[in-house]
Each structure stands twice: as C-alpha cells, then as structure tokens.
What we know:
Strand content: 5-15%
Distance between the termini: 60 Å
Number of strands: 9
Strand order of the largest sheet: 3-2-1-5-4
Amino acid sequence: MKLMRIxxxxxxxxxxxxxxxxxxxxxxxxxxxxxxxxxxxxxxERCRTEVEETVQKRDGRSRHETTVPNRVCEKSFxxxxxxxIMAAFVGRICGSGLLSPKGGATLQKVQNFSTSRAWTKNxxxxxxxxxxxxxxxxxxxxxEQSVSASGTEVHPPELPWNHKGMLDSLDxxxxxxxxxxxxxxxxxxxxxxxxxxxxLVGVSHTEAEAKAEAEEIQVRDGPDEAGNYFMRPGKLSDxxxxxxxxxxAARAANNGAYPPDLSYIALARHGGEDYLFALLTGYxxxxxxxxxxxxxxxxxxxxxxxxxxxxxxxNEAAEYSDGTPPTAxxxxxxxxxxxxxxxxxYHDERKRMGIKSVGIIMILGALSYYIKRHKxxxxxxxxxxxxxxxx
Length: 391
C-alpha cells in the first residue's frame, strides 16, 4: 500500500487543499480534503510510516512529493495545515529511516544529515590539516607533561614575584642587593662574563658607584710600548671577572664539576627564578636509598637529586648595605631577582614599550573605526531605486 501527498512549494493558504492518493492492490482512490478539516484519530497516530522526499516538476510548477510506503493501516487521513519547510523537514527525518526499527545501518542514516557532502575540496583539506595540527599539538603537550612527570626531581612551586605581572617592573633595590650577594658569595665559583659594570648604571648603581665597583678588580691589559702586559684597575667597559682562568682549573677546584656561567641561568633553566630560589633554599638530608658520592649533596629540586654545589646561603651569609636583615630566604630572593635582570636587562624597557604600543594601537584603532564609519555610512545607507520613464 502506498500513500502519496503533493504540496505546492509556495506558502500554503488556509483555503489550499491537499490531494491525498491512496494506492493499494485494489486500485487507486483520490481524496480532496481541506486543510481546515484536519483530524487524526488514534488509529492513524499508531500507523508507522517511512517517508521519502523528492522534488519534481509537475504541471510547470515545483512541487514537493512525499511517498509513504509500507503503511500498516489502510485508512485515509486529512493532513494538517503546515508550511512546505516543515513538511520537507519531517519528510527528511522520516525518510532517513531513523524512526523505523528495521531501518538500514545507523551510520548511513546519520550521513544523510551531514553537511560535509556540500564542502569544497579546499574546506576538506583545511579541516583535515586543522585536525592533524591539533592532534600533533595535543600529543606534544601530553609527551612533555609525561616526561616532566617522570623525572626524579621535585618541581619548584610558583612564587608571587613582584615582576611577574604584565605591567610590573623589577625591584631595583632587590637587584642591587642581589648584586651584593653575588659579589660576596656566588662570585667565588661562578662567572658572569656577559655582564659589564656599565650595565649597572641606571639600574642598581649610579655611574660613580659603578666606577668604584669596577676599580676594585685588577684587569690584565696590554701590551704597552715595550710589548709587556700589565695589570690595571677595572673600568666601566670591563666585564665581571671569572674566578678561574679556564674550565680545567674550575673542574679541578670543584671535584670535577664545572660551575656554570650565571649570565643567562634564569632563562636556561626550566622554571626560571622559581627554580633558582627553590634550589638555593632546598638542601636537605638524602632520603633512605639515595647514595651520594664524596663531594655531593642532596637537593630534591636538582635533576637526579645529587648536586656538587654545597649549600651557599645561610642566615647572615652576606651583608646588605641598606641594612636589610640577611636571612637565607632574603638572600635567595634577591640573588634570583638579580639573575633575572642579568638574563634580561631589557625587561623593564620591553614592558614599557608594550604599554606605549598598546596605547598607540588603541588610539589608531579608534580613529580608523571612526573614519571607516564616516566614509562608508553614506554608501551603506543609500537606497538605489529605478524609475522607468512613463510612456
């Protein structure tokens, strides 16, 4: 048995009638019903149908034809008044067989509603590339997290440094105190061969103070007129001196370990100043099962836990010129801040330029938006009308 209903594609009016054709083995019967007389009884509502929607041309007008095969009951019913869009939507849902318990494969039914069939080749390539790039990024992130989690070291906590904000500058008083800690404690083993005394001017010291700091060291210079090398007091253009003449001498003095240069140590270590502070204050006794060789110490923040550098910062291990109490945590905080400045001397200038750039961009953006609205307002609001000449 087959039931066929035909709608015009234009909006149906209340007076529009729908032709319902009931086809069975006995013959064909046509029924004309008005939309205003729609009524479905209980038997009609229990009838299960499968709808397939097609669009065909009939009598020179576009019509929607919906075919309902395999109807259980043989009763004709009156269709309610609805729009062609609703009729097409219902026909598409029912025609896919999703409402039928004996339909085809579910995946095939779902594909009937997919919009990917209308995509262009470029859209498909872009979508595939986006999925691949996103998957690769997620894989790299997961691998990085798994590698970090599998290490034997403890990850340092994130501390509230006063220069962490987007608009926060370095604490220059802390930079000055950090230089004093480096000079009195760290300079005995570590070099800073990329930092010159002139870099201190305007940051932590005045020009006279920086000159006085430079004159405390002796620099080998020459040759002179006689071809001999000589020692002279340092000047602003000289770099911080190294405690050892070469790497071999440094290893020999530190039980085979080479003290790294501290010029860029804040950027060279994962965690930055958080790692430096945790390392300097994190010395403790080795737990059971950890074997240390002679000359090694245990620090859970160092990879592997065994470090050749002994704990260098204690309470009152250095003296501050401004009278700040030299506790171990204060010393570690100040020297970490100093090393951040040493690794990034343009830190404050970078943020200052960022503030200026954002301000200029906002002003130019507002001006550009005003000009755009001013220029295009007349074009976007104009009305073009056609007035034919009267015959």
